[in-house]
Each structure stands twice: as C-alpha cells, then as structure tokens.
C-alpha cells in the first residue's frame, strides 16, 4: 500500500474504533508499523478529532488510542525513533479541547492524562488532587446565586509545558461542569408533580424532520457495552500489583514467590500420594452429598 492507502485505512479504523483494548492496541500497532509515514498519518489523527460529525464517545476512544500510541512510541524510542511523540504532544491541548466538548468524556480523559503524565515523568499529584475536589470559588458561588453565565478564564501568556496546559484545560472544564450543574439545581425548573410516561418522553416534537433520527436498539446496546468496557478499564489500575525489586527491596517478585512454594515441598511418595487422594475423595463425596440432585 502507498502512503495514501495507509492513511485512508487508518482513518477508517479510527472512525470505527471501540473501547476494547484489543481493538485500540491493533490500531496502535498499525500506526507504529507505518511510523515512517508519520507526516501522512499524524494529520489523519487530527482530522478525526476535528470531525464535527463524529460521536463524542468515539472521540474519547480515539484519545485512548492517542494515549497508548504516545506511550508505546516514547518507551520504544530506539525502535520507532520517537514517531508521533513530538507532533501529538504539540497538538495535545487542542485535542483535549475537542474531546471534552462533551463533558461526559471528562473522567476518561483524566485517566488517560494521568497515564501520559506518569510515563513522561510529569508531576501531576497537584492536578489529581484538584480534579477530585470541588473547584468552585467564592466568586463562582456568588455568580451562581445571581444566575450568571460561566466565564472562561483568560489564557495564560506564560510559556508552559504541553501537559501542564492540558491539565489546566481539563480542570477548567471540570470547574465549568460543576458550575453549570450547581446553577441548574439552583435556578432550574423543578416539579413536584407525578410525571407520567407520555409526558416524560414528549419533551420534543418528534414530527419535525430534524428530530426523527433516533438511535436503533443495536446502537444503544453497543453504546452500553462500550460504557461497560470503559468503566472496566478505568478500574484496572486498582488490580495492578507492581513489585519493583530494585526500588522496593522488602517485596519479592511474583516469580520468586512461585519458585519459593514450588520448591518448598518434596515430591510425594506413594503412601503420601494415596493419603492425599483419599482425603480428596472424601471431600468430593461430602460436596456431592450436599447437592439435592444426587445425579
């Protein structure tokens, strides 16, 4: 395939990307396999992020692809010559702005940004702490009480690292999300009446042509499955056990743990083996008797 065909294939793959790690990894490997065509493939990635017609959930998946692509290329500099790293890092603040236009992508973007910051050795503890806190200021509370619109902060003219800019953009949007929610709760129209099903689903005129396009059952189920996958991936870090022997001398590695217990006992002789099998048979018989169905 020539450079045009490869860029077209990457574009197609990104438009149909799903949150499954296998799918994201497959696309990352395709991009890294063709890392010499970075000049063609990098604009393709930006074009996908720029696509106004692309669903926000797909853009969130694309950002996870960007996260993994950055990490893989950066950690294998000798093999891929740092392909995509410089270009993506320069465009990362802009990419994040496009991804978190929909505030539902805030948490996924936050997790990806944590991983990128860790790999690039950027101290993000302050930002992580702030992200999990209430970001509204006293001035914000006054404006909410007066039912005023949220005002974006002016851009800092100081030269900052790209990742620092990304964190500030993320925190700004998180603050805006909290502001709009608080304002809606305080000044939004509430009803204490019981709302029946017909009223609940008649908030817009479905007879108008522009409102007759709805998601199919298959699309809704696909989105639900994607959300479950994203939620599962967000929890994976809680299950990781990292025992670095050089940095943590008090811990043993998994292989050392296995070798210790594998070599701790000698092979059983025939008598010990028979006793073990008899005990196992007794246990199985006891379990079998606990079932109502004897067969």
Automatic annotation (TrEMBL):
PROSITE patterns according to UniProt: CID
One Pfam family recorded for the sequence: CTK3_C
Residue ranges annotated for the CID domain, each copy included: 2-152
Biological process (GO), any one: positive regulation of DNA-templated transcription, elongation
Coiled coil region boundaries: none
This protein's GO CC annotations: CTDK-1 complex
PANTHER family membership: CTD KINASE SUBUNIT GAMMA
Protein name: CID domain-containing protein
Organism: Candida viswanathii
């Amino acid at each position: 395939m020539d450079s045009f065909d490869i860029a077209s294939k990457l574009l197609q793959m990104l438009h149909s990307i799903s949150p499954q790690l296998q799918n994201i990894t497959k696309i990352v490997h395709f991009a890294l396999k063709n890392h010499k065509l970075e000049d063609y493939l990098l604009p393709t990635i930006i074009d996908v992020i720029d696509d106004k017609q692309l669903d926000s959930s797909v853009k969130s998946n694309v950002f996870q692809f960007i996260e993994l692509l950055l990490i893989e290329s950066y950690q294998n500099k000798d093999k891929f010559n740092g392909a995509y790293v410089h270009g993506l890092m320069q465009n990362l603040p802009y990419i994040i702005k496009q991804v978190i236009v929909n505030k539902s992508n805030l948490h996924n973007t936050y997790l990806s940004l944590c991983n990128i910051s860790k790999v690039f050795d950027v101290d993000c503890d302050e930002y992580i702490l702030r992200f999990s806190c209430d970001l509204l200021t006293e001035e914000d509370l006054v404006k909410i009480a007066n039912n005023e619109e949220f005002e974006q902060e002016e851009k800092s003219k100081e030269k900052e690292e790209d990742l620092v800019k990304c964190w500030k953009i993320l925190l700004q949007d998180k603050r805006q999300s909290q502001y709009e929610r608080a304002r809606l709760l305080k000044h939004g129209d509430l009803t204490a009446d019981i709302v029946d099903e017909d009223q609940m689903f008649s908030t817009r005129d479905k007879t108008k042509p522009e409102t007759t396009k709805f998601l199919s059952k298959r699309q809704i189920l696909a989105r639900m499955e994607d959300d479950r996958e994203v939620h599962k991936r967000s929890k994976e870090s809680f299950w990781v056990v990292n025992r670095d022997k050089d940095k943590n001398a008090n811990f043993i590695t998994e292989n050392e743990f296995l070798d210790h217990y594998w070599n701790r006992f000698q092979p059983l002789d025939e008598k010990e083996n028979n006793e073990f099998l008899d005990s196992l048979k007794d246990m199985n018989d006891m379990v079998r008797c606990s079932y109502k169905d004897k067969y």
